[in-house]
Amino acid sequence: MTSHLAENLKLLCSHYRSIAEVCRKLAINRAQFNKYLGGQSRPTPFNLKRIGDFFGVEGYELEMPPEQFARLVGAGHPEAQALPRTDPLLALLQPLREHAASLSRYCGYYFEYANCMSVPGSILISLVHLREENGLYLFERQERQERASPTLGHAEDWVRCRYLGAAFGLQDRLFLIDYESLTLNEMSQTILIPSFKSRITR
């Protein structure tokens, strides 16, 4: 096997506190998972699908060359991550990072329902994952939309969209800003009114 799978798994795991946490959430034996990371063993098709579903990628995408895979999942090169302190974009957002309210109680997975702009009369359902990372609140939105065949009248394939973004709590509102990470051809903003109930259900 090539080393691409092992390298790409390491990149995905770097978004979590530890390998043990990933193994616990996946319910995969730690020793076996370490063999995947070390390139000594390859997951069975069943485990490969479980791993892909957990990280939000397809099985074949885990085999991509590391640089291509890093672009797919929205992770930059190490040199790109070492941005200077004077980076104008970071400086522009710094006040928001300092004054935004904590969103820890809203972290988790949600379904998002929206009118589908490309297919009038249809509702698009997305899966959104809001998480905390180093004091920042980041989210990922996965969409999979059916592309209908005009002649056959049924779905011939799927269009997949993956949005990556940041969330800020300002003045009793949740502001979500993201971009489409697979095509890099659009950005969007969502403004939500948070729930103040003791238990967050939607």
Structure report:
The chain is α+β, with helices and mostly antiparallel strands and 202 residues long. The protein has two domains: 4-79, lambda repressor-like DNA-binding domains (434 Repressor (Amino-terminal Domain), Orthogonal Bundle); 83-192. The protein is 30% helix and 31% strand. It contains seven helices and six strands, in the order H-H-H-H-H-H-H-E-E-E-E-E-E. A six-stranded antiparallel sheet has the order 1-2-3-4-5-6. Strand 1 (108-115) and strand 2 form a beta hairpin. The protein starts with a helix and ends in a 10-residue tail after the last strand. Residues 76-85 have low confidence and may be disordered.
The tally of domains stands at: 2
Number of helices: 7
How big is the Rg?
Answer: 19 Å
Major sheet size, sense and barrel closure = 6 strands, antiparallel
Low-confidence stretches: 76-85
Give the helices and strands as they follow along the chain.
Answer: HHHHHHHEEEEEE
Total strands: the figure is: 6
SS-based structural class? alpha+beta
Helix content: 25-40%
Taking the alpha carbons of the first and last residues, their distance comes to 43 Å
| Average pLDDT, all residues | 83
Strand arrangement, major sheet = 1-2-3-4-5-6
Shape: globular
